[in-house]
Amino acid sequence: MVHSSKNPLLDPAHLSKIEDLALLARVVVEGNFFGIHRSRRQGQGNEFFQYRTYESGEDLKSVDWKVYAKRGELMSKTYQESTNANLLIVLDASASMAYQGEHSACSKFRYAQMLASCLIYLGHRQGDRIGLFGGAEGSEVWMFPSGGNESFKSILTCIGGMSPQGADLGEGAWDKFKSKLPKQATVVYLSDFLENEHLLADRLSFARSSRYESICLQVLDPLEQSLPEAEAVRFVELEGEREVSVSPGRIRSDYQSSMNEHIEKLSTILARAGSEFSTLRSDGEIGHGIREFLGMRGSIR
Amino acid sequence: MMEFGQPLALWTGLAIALPILAHLAYRRIAHKLPFSSLRFIRSSSIPRSGRRKPSDWPLLLLRILLFVLLTLLLADPYWQKGSLVSGESSEISECLFLLDSTPSMRGWGAWEAALNEIRSRLEKDPHGRFGFLVFQNGTLKEWPIGTSREELISALDTITTQESPAGLQAMIDRAPGLFLGGGSSQKIVLLSDFQKSSWQELAGDFGKEKIELELCAVGHGDTQWMQRSGNFAIVDARVAPGGLNKVRVWAALKNFDTDRSDLNISIIAGGEVRETTQLSVPPLGTEQIQFALPASDFAQATVRIDNEDAYSMDNNQSLWILPPLPRTFGFWNRLSLEETDLLEAQFLRAAMESAGDGAWNRWTENDERAKELRMGLEDGQPVDLLMVLGLSGWFQEEGLAVPLHRHLKRGGAVLVTPPEDSHVRMNQALKEPGLLDFTFAGFNRTAFRMEPYRIEVLPQESRLNKVFAGDSVRDLYLSQIRQFINVEEGDDLEIPLRDRSGRPLVLIRTFPNGGRLVLFTFRMLPQWTDLPMRNSFLPLLVELGSLDQREENNGGVLRVEAGDPMKGSHGQIDSQRLGLFQIGEQRVEVVHPLVESMPEVMSQHELKDALVGGHFPEFREGASIQPDNADTVQSLWQWFALSAAILLIVEMIVSAPPTVITKDREVVNG
C-alpha cells in the first residue's frame, strides 16, 4: 500500500467541487503524481505528440521544415507511440453507491467517479487504450477500449453522466462484457462490493489469465463501517424496499465484526480469482486510491 | 356560574392519566435514514427513553389541557346566571305545585306518588313559599303562594282524583297569576303522569313568564317517560233488544298490555252477579263479549272486569237496559169529524204505530197531550209529532194558530194536510198568523183513468237522497198523486218534493229552535194519493219532520264521556261524575273517558314544546325546564367544542414527526 502525506488538494471535499472531470484528473495527476507514472512513449506513432530541438544524428525525416522556415531553427516532431495496453474501468453505479454518510464530503459514487477519472487520465497520459464498463441494471455502459484524445474525452463525459440508481449489473451484462474483452487488459473494478460476492469469481474469471490484470477497489463510506451515531434509526435500503428500525448503539459491535468478516471474505475470494483488492474510504484522499492503483499495477507487472 | 348537565361525565377526567403515562413511557421515534445495505443490520429493540426531555413538557401540557376540555365537554357545561341555589337566607323562592287530578292519575300509583312528592318537598325547604293548585269537582281549587305548610299538608288529604279529564288547561292558564313576585325565583312544579291524551292538546308559555318549570313525572313505574302497560279497559258497552223478553248487553274490551291476557268479565244486575265469562284478549287488541238479560227485570246493569290491573277506573261500565220510553204523536181535527178526517187519521195512526223495531223505537198516540196542546196548556209535555188534518176555517175559529206557533217555537214537529175544500181558508189560517208563507193557486186533479201526477226526480242536493239511496227511491217515484192543491211558495220555505211540472207537493218551514211545520198539498187518502201505502212513506215522513234527530242512538239514552259538555232537553247536565242518571224522562249514561285508559305518556320534548314555548336548549337532569331566557342559562358546549378542536389541531401540528431529511446531495456531474 502506498501512503501519502495529507495533501489538501487531494481531499475529496475540495475535489468534489470541480465539475469538469478532465480538469479534476489533470489537477490531481499533474499536480501530485508528475513523474511517478511512466511517460508516454514517443516514437513512430501516428499521433503528433510535441516538438523538441533537433539533435544531431536524428533522422532528418523528423524535422519539421515549416517550422525551420519560420524560425530558422531545426525542430523535430515527436509522435505518440501506442503502447497496445488496455485499461478498462468497471464502475458500479448501483443505488447503494449513492450513500453518503453525514460526515463525508461526497457520496461513494462521486468518489469512485473522481478516482476513475484520475486513473483514466493516467492511462491516457501513458498512451493506453481506455475502455469503460459499468452502470446499473438496465442502464449499463460499455465503451470498448480505444486511444486518443477523443476517446479520452468521451469516456470522461460518459462517466460524468452516470448516476447511481437501480440494482447491481446483471450477469448477462457481465457475460457480454467478458465476451468482448480485448486480448489483454488491465481491469479496474470500482464498487462497494456489499452484495453478490459469490458472483465475483465468475465475473472476474478472466483475471486468472496472464493476459489480464484485475484490480478491485472497494469504496466504502466511513459510516458503513461503523454505523451512524443515533439512538434510534429506521434504515431504508437504497437498493430495495426493506426497512428496519434499530438502535445503532446496540448493534454496532456486531455490525462492525460482520463488516470486517465480509471484507476479509472478499479479499479471499478476489485473491483466489487472481485479483488485487483494496478498500478505500470515501472521505480519504483521492491520491490514496491512485497510489493503490499504481502500486498494484506495478506489483502485477 | 358554570354548571354541568351531566356531572357524572366528569369521571372521564381520569383519562388525563393517559397522556401522562404515554409521555412517561415515550418511545423514541425512529427517523428514516436511507442506507446502502441492510445485509449486516439486524433489527433491535428501540429503547424507551423514560421521561422525555423538558422541551416536551409543553406538548404534555397541551395534551392534558385537551383531555380536560373533552371531559368538560362531555359533562355538558352551561352558564347559570343569577342564583338557583340561594345561598343567602334573604332570598326566598316561590314554588307553586300544580297537581294533575285527571282520572288516569288514579292508576299506576301516580296519585300517591304525587302527594308524597309534594309532602317531601314541603318538608325539605323550610324557607320557601309554597302554593298549590288542583282541579276538583269542576272548579279550580287554589292555595295561594304563602299558604302555611300545615294548611297545604292537610289540604292534600282532602283532594281526590276526578272522574272527568277536565281542568288541566285552566290550571296551566291560572298558574302564573298566583305568584306574588317578591321571591328571588319563581318555580312551578308540575306533578302529573303526563298521560298523552290529557296533555297533547295543552299549551302554556312559562318561558315568557320567566317562571322555571319542573316536570315531575309520577306513575311511570321504573322507566320514566316510557310507555306504561298493565291496563285492561271496557271501551264500550251497549244494550240492544235480544228477542222475546230479553236484552243483549254487548261490551268491547281492550288489552293495553303487550301480552295476551285472560280476563274474567261479569255482568251485574239487580245487585247480583248474573254471569261471569272468561275472555282471552290479544296483546294491544280488542275483544267483544255479550250477555243476555231478562228484558224488564232490571233498569240498569254493570259490566265489570274482575282482574286486577294498573288502572281500575275503566274496569266497569254501567248502562241503562230498560227500553226507551215510546215517542208520542197526536191529532188535531175539526170537532165535527167527517169520514174523510177519520179515515186519514186512522191511516196515519196505523202508519206511525207500525214504525220502530218492536221494542225500542215505538210511537204511540197520546190524545191527551194533543188536547192539552190544543187547549194552550204550556206546562204540559208536548207530543213528538202533531198532525193537523184538513186544516181550514175551524183552525182559525178556534184560534189554534197561537198554541201551534208556541209548539213550533219549542222545537215541535207539525204535519198539516189540506181540507177537502175551502183551501183559501187554509191559506189564510196559515199565512195570516205568519206560520207558513204561501198562496193558494188552484186545484190539480187528474181525470178518471188519466195518468196520475208523479214526483219529480230528487235534485242532487236534496237531503232526501240520504234516505232514498239506490233502488229505494224508485218506490217514491212510482207514487201516484191524483189530486193536490196548487200553491205558490213564499220565502224561506223548503220544497223537498215537487211534481214533474215543478209544482210544490210539500212545503216545510223550519223554526229557529228546530221546530218544523210540514204542509202536504194533498191529503193522505186513497182518492188523493197512494203514497201512505208505500214503503217509502214512513222514511219520508221521518225525514221531512226531522223526527230521527229526536231519537237517541242508544235506545233513547244519552251517553257522554265524563267531562264533556252536554245539553239535554232539561238544560245543562253535570257530567263530572261517572254513572247513570235520569233527568226528567231523559236517561243519561256518563261513561269513563276512553282516552284516559291509554297508557301512552308524553315525551319530555313534546311537553317542552307545549309548555315552555319555542325552542329550549337542553333538558337538565331531573327534567327541570328553566325559562327560555338567554340571560339566565347559556350553554357553553359549543365554546368547549371549539376550544377542543383548536387544541387538537395544535397538538397534531406539534406532535407530528419531523420531515425526514435525507442527505441526498446531488452528485455533481462533470
Walk me through the structure.
With 301 residues, chain A is α/β, with parallel strands linked by helices. Chain A contains 10 helices and 11 strands. In chain A, strand 7, helix 7 and strand 8 form a beta-alpha-beta unit. In chain A, helix 2 crosses helix 4, helix 4 packs antiparallel against helix 5 and helix 4 packs across helix 10. Chain B is built from 16 helices and 32 strands. In chain B, the strands form 9 sheets. Chain B has a 6-stranded mixed beta sheet, sandwiched between helices. Chain B has a 6-stranded mixed beta sheet with strand order 19-18-20-21-25-24, sandwiched between helices. Chain B has a 4-stranded antiparallel beta sheet with strand order 14-13-16-17, with no helix packed on it. In chain B, a hairpin with a 2-residue loop joins strand 29 and strand 30. Chains A and B meet through helix 2, helix 4, helix 5, strand 9 and strand 10 of A and strand 3 of B.
